[in-house]
Amino acid sequence: MKSKIMASALALTLGASVVLSGSPLSAKAEVGKENKYIVIFKDQAKLPTDFGIEISKAGGQIEAKLDKLGAVEVVSTNPNFLSQIKKSSTVLDAGIQNIVQPDTAAIEAEALVTNAGPSADLYNSLQWDIKQVTNNGASWNLTGGTGKSVDGNDIVVGVIDTGIDYTHPDLKDNYAYGKSFVPGYPDAMDQNSHGTHVAGSIAAKGRTMGVGPDLKVAAYRVFGPTGGAETSHIAEALMTAADDNVDVVNMSLGGYDWFQNPDYATKDTVADVRLFNRAIQYAINKGVTVVGSAGNNALDISSPGKLSGDDNGATHRSPSSQSMIRVSAGGQLKNLAFYSNYGVGKIDVIAPGGDLGPNYDPTTGTGRDNTYLCLATVPGGYGYKAGTSMAAPKTAALAGVIIAQHGKDNLSPSQVKHIIQSSSDDIFKRGYDGEAGFGLINAVNALK
Asked: What does the pLDDT read at residue 300?
């Protein structure tokens, strides 16, 4: 991928059951067209008293307020809106709000499940990934191991995704509630399949099992049946989940921001990066462990020039923060999946995300074996998928069962992260490495 594929753009995609299927699109303000912007104020805890007047003077109209993050979503037909609003002494940064269509080439094979029969125990026969994390279910016999808290409180994992099929027989008893942030779609019902698959990896209890089969899942829907999501909607969902006192949030989504000026390569100078960072830190400060997928471009994301080609500048995986838990994807053979991003300082742990087997050639597409994919719930049934989206929720579920063992509100997010890292199996280079981070997650080790 060469030459300016990400100029000032964020690809908000269903980050993870997708592999290398297209470049993100960049957003630009068009003359005469109504454009959406994010305005970030210097005070991140509240909005200035006169912020509405300043935005109006710059030709903008407020569409949504994120008061607790010190930000607003603005629409404007003024092509000079950004240059004018940035002159305000109260504004830290402002930028175009980007929407990019999700990649469409998913690794999935839902039809294969019908071969197992209408009442087969799919966990025992097909869920190698859940068995890998739980040591064949051994972690369920340890205190808190199923996600049932020692203090009697429900441990809730918020799933920021496409929604959840809350009628699914394997999920309905563990479904806490749902909220939608998608305009025109007030229901949190999944119309895609991605979010239901993620939720099943966390808390399914039926023909399939999740890592924590007594955990609760809450849907925070940010994606419609098709298409991408706005930065502000994802940030609002994360902020709302924190206000709802969830224990863990899983974000199997993501994209990239490109910093054109190399002097700013390590600084948060893009508006949506700032907004995501504020939302992540807001959640963590409220005691929420935040987990995210590393992305599926098979690239070293600590060497961002591979994403921005020959252009100057650097690329930032977003949303991402050193305060959250960043997860790469491994296969059944405890290898790094061929599609998974990696990078020193960018990965905390690895978890099973599935691949297409040891004989698969990504170049020719030959040798595919779908049994190496990850099986979980999808609307109306069960399906196979693979991606860092499938790895992240297993880590989020592990965070949930760790919290269940210690009791709600008794561990900080940094303590949960430390337990996950320190209990992981070292599978590649000795010690930390950029492919697996601190190692392959292990629920038995974590709970012992």
From this structure: 87
